[in-house]
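2024-03-11 09:14:02 INFO queue: dequeued item Histidinol-phosphate aminotransferase, len=355
2024-03-11 09:14:02 INFO validating residues
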Amino acid sequence: MKTSFSLNLLLRDNIKTLVPYSSARDEYKGEASILLDANENAFGSPYSKNYNRYPDPLQHRVKEKLHHIKGVPIENIFLGNGSDEAIDILFRAFCEPGRDNVILVPPTYGMYEVSANINNVAYKKVVLTADYQLDLDRIAEAIDPYTKMIFICSPNNPTGNSIHRQDIETILVNFDGIVVVDEAYINFSRQPSFTQDLAEFPNLVILQTLSKAWGLAALRLGMAFAGKEIIEVFNKIKPPYNINQATQDIVLEALEGVDIVNEWIKEVVEEREKLAVALQTLPQVAHVTPSDANFILVKLEEPRALYNFLVSNGIIVRDRSKVALCEGCLRFTIGTPEENITLLENIRKFYDQSL
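2024-03-11 09:14:37 INFO prediction written
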């Protein structure tokens, strides 16, 4: 177990002394029949359902439901507008602009770099190995006294593979800063989540989302799991009502659908393997990266021309051919069986007409 981690040493001084905004709904607990504290419209909303009252600032009912599904205590859960809000808060909490830095391990999710730039925080890139795993020696060399966070996406985007668990644990044990493990695609993975290891690693922050397996991308609800003290920092920094009531209502109803989501996950994994096998039969396909996500990264001939051909036929995929270690690759999200068949038909049509 790690003993040298100190949250107080990592926090920015202005965050340590920050007095968070106290909303009207923070100032009382329980039920009330007359609410005259928040300057709301007491007459209702011009809609079939009333949304005239401010939402629960800490989303207790949603967190209670997630607690039962994820097995994580409520005090260890933060909800944000997508994982992007949690990422931004991490930078604002722990990184002094113009002084501190973070480590990124490309190819990886691009929002880490964008958020670093927005917050004027330097980043060091330690490229993954040829098999898309962590280069532990180079990461160790890149760490300096001003390195506050290391971001690891597992399963990784855009490659789809899971990062070796023992390598992540090595960093957690030996790095005094925050280790962010982004598990946006964990539902499709063979590896277990790190959410059951929060007590063992006090410097661990796990990001997850309802946008992928749960099919709620339009709602933009992200989750962060961490020790109680780190979650308290998140809640201190976030806007008072960061998750609107409509989103909370819909999510509560959707979280009743665990069984159907599990069926979707099973079908996505089956379709992923079928699509990978089918693509590997094409002579123009050089490599299909084994995936633990709901997409596959495929190295093939004429990636940009194929991308344009697919777009012209109404099929949108992701061109990753100019990304480091992904040269010549397109990324295909796993669709419905019918969509996957149509994708394959169009890929074959493109290569046939190129002969």
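2024-03-11 09:14:37 INFO annotate: The radius of gyration is 22 Å.
2024-03-11 09:14:38 INFO item closed
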